[in-house]
Amino acid sequence: MGCTLGTGNNQNHYAGFTLWEILVVLFLMGILLMSFTPHFGSASSLVRKQMDQANIRRIEGAVQLYKIDVGTFPLSVEDLVNSPDGVRGWHGPYIKEIPHSPYNTEQDYQINSSGRVTHASPGQEE
């Protein structure tokens, strides 16, 4: 039963949409939404990559400041936040907090013997 609009001609005109019309519109909206979804996925991977590179640059800059003050490279990223035992000339903290990898929160940044930052899983030694 549909709503009828009265006219002067005794003709009944139904107002509203049929089920098929609504389904077609929803189907077309779904196709449009699906066509834009891949763009969001690639944007988030780009943001993760840029965040990772920014973390590495920030840690490597702090490593250079540490080396200027102490004379050697730090043994770990934690040495940039907290003063290591037995180290003279430490004027930190060189970074406020230890950044975590945007790809995997279980993966930490490590500093190699030349002061470069690498990724290492927990428990992995350089």
UniProtKB/TrEMBL annotation:
InterPro entries: Bac_GSPG_pilin, N_methyl_site, Pilin-like, T2SS_protein-GspG_C. The chain crosses the membrane at residues 20-41. Pfam families: N_methyl (PF07963), T2SSG (PF08334). It comes from the Bacteria. SUPFAM superfamilies: Pili subunits. Keywords: Membrane, Methylation, Transmembrane, Transmembrane helix. Residues 104-126 are annotated as: Disordered. GO terms for biological process: protein secretion by the type II secretion system. Coiled coil: none annotated. Residues 104-116 have a biased composition (Polar residues). Residues 49-117 form the Type II secretion system protein GspG C-terminal domain. One of its GO terms (cellular component) is type II protein secretion system complex. NCBIfam families: IV_pilin_GFxxxE (TIGR02532). This is Prepilin-type N-terminal cleavage/methylation domain-containing protein.
